[in-house]
Amino acid sequence: MPELIAPTTTTASSGGPAGRMPTLYLSHGAPPLIDDPIWPTQLAQWSANLPRPRAILVASAHWEAAPVTIGATTPVPLVYDFWGFPQRFYDVRYDAPGAPDLAARVAGLLSSHTPVYQDLERGLDHGAYVPLTVMYPDADIPVLQMSMPSEDPQALLEIGRLLAPLRDEGVLIIGSGFMTHSFDAIHKMQRGATGIPNALLEFDAWAAEALARKDVDSLIDYHRRAPGVAYAHPTVDHFVPLFISLGAGLDREQPAQTQVDGYWMTNSKRSVQFG
Asked: Which of 21, 61, 210, 263 is most open to solvent, judged by the fewest CB atoms within 10 Å of its CB?
């Protein structure tokens, strides 16, 4: 049973300066991402070019719970929230340290907006640990996962804005989803279809342009403005983590920088950096 977590105003970091951290929206794919010949190298190069974080805060498409809920800060099993894969994907470990100070700090930052609960048994799901296994393979950086309490862009943007001070404390904020998330396209590919469906190409191009302009109004209104959205995101859980990252990175006018692009299993793996 989740319990209310006590907030604190104490900073989440310690030690020497880590530098101001950017925020990331990354496409996390699925467990077989680690077998791709290109994608793991792209993610590893991306993380190598970042300041080393003191802690990592992840909001994943695979954990929706309201109000905001914080995951375990002590060692617990990973959440293998997938099925039908070879056993080796269920044997993966990612034993990163917990981040209890960060959990209390998140509660403190959000306390004026929402109560924050903690689920002491909730481990990292594959939207968190799969990309981290190649970005920070030593698992030596404390990692905390928080739930996504809503799919409303404005609500998530505000949560990101409230969490933005963590960037000055060496915390890397990651919204983890997938720039397009069409199982229909994947199933057609598995049945022998070739090429990327036009709807996915159009949605990805629209998102890339809106992000390059940092056009927050268009992004928030994606349901009406984005071409191909119904096919690219029949459910929107993999797109909307973007807004937590965007909200935390709104303090600078510079555009989002695409760090990974291209397609995997016909879906766009576009991943971007703010700040």
From this structure: 263
